[in-house]
Structures are given as structure tokens and as C-alpha cells.
């Protein structure tokens, strides 16, 4: 028994503590020695991974996950008579447009038409104001109660007055009107169908949804809805601005980066292919492989790229996917809705916009009607909300997507690199290598060599560093309240420069801080501040990555390298120049006037977090990195 | 001191009047089914209407709350907000008194820091804003420790009886409290020694506690007209009837459990809490206050229905033991873990409940991060508390944990 115990002890190595300690020390030492290499490796891997996302090696084919959906399994009954009806509505709508009819008139027209069909209609007036612009209008809507069900659930078909291109969405509205007449003929609906013809672009639908879900906000007056129905599960928004269309484009991004369940997109794609006979695109991006010899439709490579490169099949594929992903990141990172459907996501409604990509043909109301009818039948099959397929994905092409596991690590690796940097700086702050003065004076030369340098622990006073961190964020909040105020927006061009100047001068106050004292006993402030900034930015990126990957990737790109590189210098000029660079990075966006107005409008009206996030989180972090450079080492 | 207190109270009142309170009121991280203010009001309403509030599954508060809120304290939310803020201030005051008793000092420069660390700790602050009754548990716990540190046995035991009555797991604090009453609250971490008080003197203290506790039980039974409250309030902690998500580690485990294993694992989980008491009290017999502090950390992690204020109490108590700070091994890692957990908890809860894109596993993952953060803090405090005794590290020697 005793021998067995001995054996076990030696096998586990617990008998020899010193070996264990040596091993652990060697491990720590090698980690510490290679820390900068590790950080660079992690950063590079993260960024390369991001660049590799459009690669055709990543990604997999889409599939239907929810068995109840059964897309494209029904006969459709949408006929040329319904197309004719849509044409009639279109004529009326064109008249309304041509005589510049007011919102009320239009809504009254819609309501009358719904009433003629025997579907209870109603209208809703709303007024919105924000510091950038005010809008008002009237929505029209009608609720078709399902003949055989309780009305506890509903689906929405909507079209807005304006298209996301700069035109009017007349054909979209005509389609919805004609569909309402058509759908009413059938009794197989298990869910109420709500037809919404919203005014404006996003504002009308926002007002309608707020009233429907009972959420209110101080800058919006909405009439309460006279008609209601059950819980809305899914929604289709139709955007058909042109005369005819060649493809149907899917827009999916919602407010604050929320995406609809992928099953909805996949079902629609299958149905459009097989029932409507219309190929599906992401957004309005044509696939260059469908247009041999006309790769220039991709418009993503700069003009000077040699033709030999752009004509390469793999490069073309990469470019096509990169274009799709970049468009997605553009919407998702800024929290913008890519269409009217995006407003519904916040109420847990899975919704997409069908965009009829304008073209000279060959499709029109007939194909669109059949596709929508069959898609509605698929949505009608649902017994519970869409939940089976993916909520976190990136579509690379209409038929391929990236799972969360293939894209998330890229941003997380950058975050890990920053975290290692922060922890490394924290250790740096705690220890300093000093020359041992009296070691050489005593006796042996060898001993003097060994003891010439030794590590001394010094105290880390985190209060000043945290004070700077908190005050920059408070300053960021103040900056946000300034730039989102109506007086700033009214005179944006006059005020922009003074605000940038003031905001970038404020951090110079830190120069007045007393020097941190003896570096052998007290950790220098810049190191502590850099540690805090690195840790905080890492936390920000990794936490955001689950909520909104595009935003996390954007932050990883915007913060990763600059914050890692921040370092104090000895000459005052270098310090100031470095600081100015960081201030420009942190505050430069203020000069993007139109973009900023949009972001502020989205925050004030739709509650998109992007604008406050930039002001209260991103800019202060850049300024902290700038202060790291500014402070004397 | 007065200034900081005034500032904290003012800040609290401003926040209480802001719309933040409405947002936080039914937040599952801040108030559990056992401490939710909405449920308390529901119970009071039923009680006033002459319906036994314990006959359903919504009301799980102690009958003492019922008695208090239906008679003495007006049933108004605005008043409650002010009351909760005052209770928090009382907790901060008790914490400062403990510090003074431990350091044998009158007023000191550290007082305001300790009070601020308590009053501005978001884990304490937010549950109090959401009017979670866990604020009362926390404060009573601190007051009990304060009396124990000052050597006032009866007051301490009575407060502890109240605490244990409101939140049954606090019963585990009885042994260290008794030890604290028999010994002194001063810091002996640096010089461990065998317990020098007379254990036999503890028996009357146990008896006294039992007397208080039994009279509270009796009072509760009289108030609520029957013993139905026992199964509904105390029983909830042992039988876990309500699986509303909370930041603790119990709920998810028991949502996944097959019914026939339930009693077994309920017993395991409850007994598991008890096994920490004796080892901690024995190992830290030279400093029972530290043992009590560590036990509060254990409760913060493994309690059946925790809210953020349970780990918050533990974290705020760290301010009492500055002598251990140099020996903490990874305070920055623990801090960052807490930062991550603090952000991930509401985020994943939102993804699951509000947007519907996530599911229960998301929130569970964030509670695991939270558990790791709390566990890391606790283990580090255990290490530091023992390490203090070994003094400065000498050249060529290493201290390891076997």
C-alpha cells in the first residue's frame, strides 16, 4: 500500500515541489518573454480571419431548419386578373402622386379601397420630431381576420410610400392592395393578416408599430390604433420602385444589428426560385458569375486592378462575397435598418424586405404576387415562432452563410490580444528593474554581475488612472448631449470646428497633473492608464461581439491597433503630435456632417445605439490612448 | 464622512426619482422571487383583502415583512424608495463601525472610502434601486456583524435571528458570529493562534439565538394565521419551486433536471452550503470575522435565490481587510471577470427574453462567468487571508499551496 502511494506520488509529481515551482516559473517566464509576439500574433490572426470571411472556403449552404415551413409545397392561385387589379390600383396611385396628394388624401384612398374589398380599414396620424428634422404623416392599415382561427397571431404585409431608393414605392403599394383583395378569397389562413401602407419611409412604420405595441416616446405623437390583432410573428415588406424587375433582393438587417431568423430568408429564396421563377439576390448585388464577360458590375475592385486579376474566378467570387459582407457590416455596425422591415425586429417579429431590383424585365406583378402568396402560405404553416434556424449569421451569397462559430473568433482574438496587452501593462506597472548599487561594492565580481539588476515591486495607485477614464467618459456623454442638441444641429457647420477643438483641448488638462513621483516606488500613470484602456476596450469588443458582430469587428479594427500602439514619448513635440493623431481619430467623425445627422436622428427617433456608443465609449477610449501618449513617462 | 454619506444618499434619491427604477423593478438579477418588491405588494394586497397570501405561489416573503408593510410602513413606492436608500445608508454605517471595531480606531481616513465602496457598489446600489428586499437582508447582516464586533451579544444574535428569518441560508453565519462574540474582532490574520475563548460559553449564546429565532417563528405564525408561510418562504429556498432565472447557479441546473432526481440534488445543493462552515471556522479560528466574511462569499455564490446584492456584500466587505491586499494573487483578473459578468448578465438576459435571438443557455453562460468571478474572488481572499501569516517572501524561498 505504501509503495503504491509512493508511486502515485511520484507519478503526480507532488513529491518534488521545487521541480513544480521551477516548471511553473519557466512557463511564466517564457510567456512573459513572448508576450509581445503573442499579442502581435493574436492581432494579426484576428485581422486575417476578418479578411478571410468572404473566402469561399468558409461558409456553408443554407437549408430549411423548421420542418413546419414546407416552402413552395402549395399551388398558387394568383392570376392575371389579380395583376390587372394591381395595374388599376397603380393607375390611381400614379394620379395621386402626380397631383402631389397629401398624406391624408392618400390614406383616405387606401382606406376606401380596403373598405370596398370588405376588409376593415383604419388610418393613423402621427408626428415625429427630432433635433435634425420633423416629419408627420398618415398611415393606412387594414386587418383581415383569419376566418378559421382565433386571431391570436398575425402576419404583416406592408409597403411604405417611399422606396429605399429615392423614388416612390407605388408598385409595392399596388401589390399590397391587390394582394389584400386576393388573399381575402381564401379561408385557409391560420393567422390574421395585417396590411400596412405606411407613410414616409421609416417614420410611418415606426409610428404604427409603437402604437401597436404600446410603446411611447416623448418626441412622437401617434393616434392610437382603432383596429388591433394578435401577436405579430412574421412580416414581409415590399419595395418595388421600378417598372419591372429582374431579381428579388432580400434586405434583412434590423435596428441595432438584429437579424431575422434565417429560415424566413431561406424559405423565401426557395419559393422565389421555384414558384415565382425569380432569382434572389442579397440587396441589389448581382452575382458576377451570372454575367460572363461583365465582371465590372461588381464595382468593388479599384479601377487600376489588372483585368487579369479581376477576371480570375476565385478573385471574382471573393469580391462578390466581400461586397455582400461589407454592405451587411455597413448596416449592422451602425445599427441601421436596411429597410422598413428592420423596425419590426425590436418587437421580436421576423421580417424581411423584398426589393424588386429595377430592370427592364422580365418580371412584374405576376411573379411577385405568386412569390408573396406562397411565402405567406409558408408563414401560415408555423405553429410557433421561428426559432429553429440561425439568428446569428452572415450571408455571404443568397445561398451560403457563415455560422457564428466561423466569424466570431476573429473579433474575439483581437479582444484577447488587447486583454493580454492590458494584463502585460498591469504587470509592467507593478514591477521595475533597478540597478543594485551596493552589490558590486561588496566582494565577488560574479555575485555583482548576478545581482547587478533586480526586480523591485512598486505600488500601483489606480485611482488617478480610473479618474481619467471616468472623466473622459463623462466628457464623452457631455459631447453627445451637445452634438445631439437642436441648437448644434441647426448650425452644424458653424459649431463643428469649435466643438472638435474644445473636445480635443480638454484632455490637455491632464498635463497639469502632478508627475507620478519616483518610478521605482510608484507606477507611472501612463502605464496604468494604458492598462485600463486596453482592458476596457477588450471587454467592449468581446461583449459586443455577441450582440452585434459587425459593430465588434468595426471596434476591433478602429481600436485594436491604435490603443495597442499608444505609448508615451520623451520629447514634448512627439507627445503632442501623437496626441493630436489620436484626437483626430477619436473626434474626426464629427466632421462627417450628414452621417452624423443621420445617426442622431436614428438615436432620437428609432433608439439606435450607434451615436451614443461612439460618443460615450469610442471617442473617450481614443482620447485615453491619446492621454497615454501625452503624459510624461 | 458626512459629506460622502450626503452625496450617496442624494445620488440615490435622484436615481430613485428617475425612470431607471421602473426599468429595474422586475429585473431578475436584482430581485429574486423571494425578494421582489412587486411580489411583496401583491402579498400585502392579498393580505389586506383577507386572502391568505401564502395560498398561492407568488408571495414568498417573510410574514414579518407582511406585518411591517401592512401596518407601520405606508404602502407607497416613493416612500419605499427613500426607505431603501436609508436602509443602505444604515448598512454603510454598520460597515464603518465594523471597521472601527476591527482597527480599534475612532474616526479614520478610511471611513469614507469604506462607506463609498459600499454605497456606490453597483451590486448593492442596483438591487436597492429596484426595491429588492435583499437590501434589508444585507443591512441586517452587517448590523449583526457590527454588534458582534462590538461585543454586544444579545443585539447581535437578535439581528442575526432576523436575518436568518428573512433569508434562511444566513443561519450558517451563526457559528462565526458566536466565535466572534467569544473572541475579539481585531485582525489576527498575521499571527494565527488557537482559539483562546471558551467554547463552552458559546452554548448559552446558541440557546439565546434559538430563543430569538423561535419567537420570530412564533410571531410569524401568529401574523400569518398559520404555518403555511414556512413552506412558502423558507421552503422555497430548499425545494426551489420557482425557477425564475437569477444570477445564481441553482435555477438552470434544476430546469434541466429529471423530476426523479430532484429531491436528491436539492438535498445535495442545500447540504453543500453547510459543509463550508466548519472548515472555515476552524481554519480561521484566530479571526472569526474573516471566517464570517468568507462564508458570506460562499453564500453569494451558492445561495438558492441570490441577487446581485449577495456577492455585492462580500465584495464590499473586502474593504475591511486591507492587510490582505498585498497578498491577493490575481485581483485584476477577478475585477475584469466581474466587469465581463456585469455586462454579460443583462445583455444575455435581454437577448433571451426581449429580442428572442438567444436562449436560456446564453444567460446561463453569463451566470457561469459570474460564478467564476465570485469564486475567483473568494479563493483569492482565502489564499490572501492565510498568506498574511507567513510574512514577507524571502530570497530563495517560495510559498506554495499544497
Word description of this protein:
The complex is a heterodimer of chains A (633) and B (402). With 633 residues, chain A is of the alpha/beta class. Chain A has two domains: 32-53 and 407-431 and 460-630, no CATH class; 67-283 and 338-352 and 359-384, Aminopeptidase, CATH 3.40.630.10. Chain A contains 21 helices and 14 strands. Chain A has helices at residues 2-12, 17-33, 35-52, 80-98, 103-117, 170-183, 202-213, 262-276, 307-310, 313-333, 365-380, 404-430, 445-451, 462-483, 486-490, 492-505, 525-547, 549-565, 572-587, 593-606, 610-630; strands at residues 60-61, 121-129, 134-144, 153-160, 192-198, 220-222, 231-239, 244-251, 280-282, 350-359, 393-397, 400-403, 431-435, 453-457. In chain A, a hairpin with a 2-residue loop joins strand 11 (393-397) and strand 12. In chain A, helix 4 crosses helix 6, helix 8 crosses helix 11 (365-380) and helix 12 (404-430) packs parallel to helix 18. Chain A is elongated. By secondary structure, chain B is mainly α. The longest helix of chain B is centred in the last third of the chain and has 28 residues, at 360-387. At the A-B interface, helix 2, helix 12 and helix 17 of A face helix 18 of B.
Helix content of chain B: 55-70%
Note poorly predicted spans of chain B: none
**Beta strand % of chain B:** under 5%
Cα Rg of chain B: 21 Å
Please mark out the parts of chain A with pLDDT under 50 across 5 or more consecutive residues, or reply none. none
How can the largest sheet of chain A be summarized?
A: 9 strands, mixed
CATH 4th-level superfamily of the largest domain in chain A:
Zn peptidases
Q: What is the distance, rounded to the nearest whole angstrom, between the alpha carbons of the first and last residues of chain A?
A: 62 Å
End-to-end Cα distance of chain B, whole Å, is: 43 Å
Protein name (chain A): Gaa1-domain-containing protein
Protein name (chain B): PIG-U-domain-containing protein
Amino acid at each position: 500500500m505504501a509503495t503504491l502511494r509512493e508511486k502515485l506520488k511520484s507519478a503526480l509529481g507532488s513529491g518534488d515541489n521545487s521541480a513544480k515551482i521551477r516548471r511553473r516559473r519557466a512557463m511564466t517566464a517564457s510567456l512573459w518573454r513572448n508576450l509581445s509576439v503573442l499579442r502581435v500574433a493574436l492581432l494579426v490572426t484576428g485581422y486575417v480571419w476578418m479578411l478571410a470571411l468572404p473566402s469561399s472556403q468558409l461558409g456553408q449552404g443554407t437549408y430549411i431548419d423548421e420542418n413546419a415551413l414546407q416552402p413552395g409545397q402549395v399551388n398558387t392561385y394568383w392570376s392575371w386578373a389579380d395583376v390587372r387589379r394591381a395595374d388599376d390600383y397603380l393607375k390611381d396611385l400614379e394620379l395621386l402622386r402626380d397631383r402631389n396628394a397629401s398624406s391624408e388624401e392618400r390614406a383616405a384612398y387606401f382606406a376606401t379601397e380596403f373598405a370596398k374589398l370588405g376588409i376593415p380599414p383604419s388610418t393613423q396620424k402621427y408626428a415625429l420630431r427630432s433635433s435634425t428634422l420633423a416629419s408627420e404623416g398618415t398611415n393606412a392599415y387594414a386587418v383581415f381576420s383569419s376566418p378559421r382561427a382565433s386571431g391570436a397571431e398575425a402576419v404583416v404585409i406592408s409597403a411604405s410610400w417611399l422606396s429605399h431608393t429615392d423614388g416612390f414605392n407605388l408598385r409595392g403599394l399596388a401589390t399590397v392592395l391587390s394582394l389584400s383583395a386576393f388573399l381575402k378569397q381564401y379561408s385557409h389562413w391560420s393567422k390574421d393578416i395585417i396590411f400596412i401602407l405606411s407613410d414616409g419611409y421609416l417614420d410611418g412604420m415606426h409610428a404604427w408599430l409603437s402604437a401597436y405595441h404600446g410603446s411611447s416616446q416623448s418626441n412622437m405623437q401617434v393616434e392610437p390604433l382603432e383596429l388591433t390583432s394578435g401577436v405579430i410573428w412574421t412580416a414581409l415588406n415590399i419595395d418595388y420602385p421600378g417598372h419591372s424587375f429582374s431579381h428579388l433582393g432580400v434586405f434583412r438587417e434590423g435596428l441595432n444589428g438584429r437579424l431575422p431568423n434565417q429560415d424566413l430568408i431561406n424559405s423565401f429564396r426557395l419559393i422565389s426560385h421555384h414558384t415565382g421563377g425569380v432569382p434572389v439576390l442579397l440587396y441589389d448585388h448581382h452575382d458576377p458569375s451570372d454575367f460572363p464577360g461583365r465582371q465590372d458590375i461588381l464595382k468593388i475592385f479599384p479601377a487600376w486592378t489588372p483585368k487579369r486579376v479581376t477576371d480570375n474566378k476565385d478573385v471574382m467570387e471573393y469580391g462578390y462575397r466581400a461586397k455582400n459582407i461589407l454592405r451587411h457590416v455597413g448596416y449592422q455596425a451602425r445599427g441601421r435598418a436596411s429597410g422598413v422591415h428592420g423596425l419590426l425586429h425590436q418587437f421580436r417579429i421576423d421580417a424581411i424586405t423584398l426589393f424588386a431590383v429595377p430592370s427592364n424585365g422580365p418580371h412584374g406583378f405576376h411573379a411577385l404576387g405568386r412569390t408573396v402568396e406562397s411565402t405567406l402560405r409558408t408563414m401560415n404553416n408555423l405553429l410557433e415562432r421561428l426559432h429553429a434556424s440561425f439568428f446569428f449569421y452572415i450571408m455571404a451569397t443568397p445561398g451560403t452563410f457563415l455560422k457564428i462559430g466561423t466569424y466570431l473568433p476573429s473579433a474575439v482574438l483581437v479582444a484577447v490580444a488587447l486583454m493580454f496587452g492590458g494584463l502585460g501593462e498591469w504587470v509592467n506597472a507593478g514591477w521595475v528593474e533597478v540597478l543594485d548599487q551596493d552589490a558590486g561594492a561588496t566582494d565577488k565580481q560574479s555575485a555583482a554581475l548576478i545581482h547587478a539588476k533586480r526586480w523591485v515591486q512598486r505600488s500601483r495607485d489606480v485611482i488617478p488612472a480610473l479618474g481619467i477614464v471616468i472623466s473622459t467618459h463623462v466628457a464623452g456623454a457631455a459631447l453627445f448631449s451637445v452634438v445631439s442638441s437642436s441648437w448644434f444641429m441647426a448650425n452644424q457647420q458653424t459649431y463643428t470646428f469649435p466643438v472638435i477643438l474644445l473636445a480635443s483641448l480638454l484632455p490637455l488638462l491632464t498635463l497639469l497633473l502632478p508627475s507620478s513621483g519616483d518610478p521605482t516606488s510608484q507606477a507611472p500613470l501612463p502605464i496604468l492608464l494604458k492598462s485600463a484602456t486596453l482592458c476596457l476596450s477588450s471587454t467592449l469588443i468581446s461583449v459586443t461581439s455577441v450582440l452585434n458582430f459587425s459593430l465588434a469587428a468595426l471596434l476591433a479594427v478602429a481600436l485594436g491597433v491604435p490603443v495597442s500602439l499608444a505609448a508615451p514619448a520623451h520629447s514634448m513635440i512627439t507627445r503632442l503630435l501623437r496626441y493630436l493623431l489620436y484626437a483626430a481619430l477619436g473626434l474626426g467623425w464629427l466632421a462627417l456632417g450628414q452621417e452624423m445627422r443621420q445617426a442622431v436622428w436614428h438615436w432620437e427617433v428609432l433608439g439606435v445605439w450607434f451615436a451614443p456608443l461612439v460618443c460615450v465609449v469610442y471617442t473617450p477610449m481614443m482620447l485615453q490612448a491619446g492621454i497615454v501618449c501625452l503624459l510624461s513617462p | 464622512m458626512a459629506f460622502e454619506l450626503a452625496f450617496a444618499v442624494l445620488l440615490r434619491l435622484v436615481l430613485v426619482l428617475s425612470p431607471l427604477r421602473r426599468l429595474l423593478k422586475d429585473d431578475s438579477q436584482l430581485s429574486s422571487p423571494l425578494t421582489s418588491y412587486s411580489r411583496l405588494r401583491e402579498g400585502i394586497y392579498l393580505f389586506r383583502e383577507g386572502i391568505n397570501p401564502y395560498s398561492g405561489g407568488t408571495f414568498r416573503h417573510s410574514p414579518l415583512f407582511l406585518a411591517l408593510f401592512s401596518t407601520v410602513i405606508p404602502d407607497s413606492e416613493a416612500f419605499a424608495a427613500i426607505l431603501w436608500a436609508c436602509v443602505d445608508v444604515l448598512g454603510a454605517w454598520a460597515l464603518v463601525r465594523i471597521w472601527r471595531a476591527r482597527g480599534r480606531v475612532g474616526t479614520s481616513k478610511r471611513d469614507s472610502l469604506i462607506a463609498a465602496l459600499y454605497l456606490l457598489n453597483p451590486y448593492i446600489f442596483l438591487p436597492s434601486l429596484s426595491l429588492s428586499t435583499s437590501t434589508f437582508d444585507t443591512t441586517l447582516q452587517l448590523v449583526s456583524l457590527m454588534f458582534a464586533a462590538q461585543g454586544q451579544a444579545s443585539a447581535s444574535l437578535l439581528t442575526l435571528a432576523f436575518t436568518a428569518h428573512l433569508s434562511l441560508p444566513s443561519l450558517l453565519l451563526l457559528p462565526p458570529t458566536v466565535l466572534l462574540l467569544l473572541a475579539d474582532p481585531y485582525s489576527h490574520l498575521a499571527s494565527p493562534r488557537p482559539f483562546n475563548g471558551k467554547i463552552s460559553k458559546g452554548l448559552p449564546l446558541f440557546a439565546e439565538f434559538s430563543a430569538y429565532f423561535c419567537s420570530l417563528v412564533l410571531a410569524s405564525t401568529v401574523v400569518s394565521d398559520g404555518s403555511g408561510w414556512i413552506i412558502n418562504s423558507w421552503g422555497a429556498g430548499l425545494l426551489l419551486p420557482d425557477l425564475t432565472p437569477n444570477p445564481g447557479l441553482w435555477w438552470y441546473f434544476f430546469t434541466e433536471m429529471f423530476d426523479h432526481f430532484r429531491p436528491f440534488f436539492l438535498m445535495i445543493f442545500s447540504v453543500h452550503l453547510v459543509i463550508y462552515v466548519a472548515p472555515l471556522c476552524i481554519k480561521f479560528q484566530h479571526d472569526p470575522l474573516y471566517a464570517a466574511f468568507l462564508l458570506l462569499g460562499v453564500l453569494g455564490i451558492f445561495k438558492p435565490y441570490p441577487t446581485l446584492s449577495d456577492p455585492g456584500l462580500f465584495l464590499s466587505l473586502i474593504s475591511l481587510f486591507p492587510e490582505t491586499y498585498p497578498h491577493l494573487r490575481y485581483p485584476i483578473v477577478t475585477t475584469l471577470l466581474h466587469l465581463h459578468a456585469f455586462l454579460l448578465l443583462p445583455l444575455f438576459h435581454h437577448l433571451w427574453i426581449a429580442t428572442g435571438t438567444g436562449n436560456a443557455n446564453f444567460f446561463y453562460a453569463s451566470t457561469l462567468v459570474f460564478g467564476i468571478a465570485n469564486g475567483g474572488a473568494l479563493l483569492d481572499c482565502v489564499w490572501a487571508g492565510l498568506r498574511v501569516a507567513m510574512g514577507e517572501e524571502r530570497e530563495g524561498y517560495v510559498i506554495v499551496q499544497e
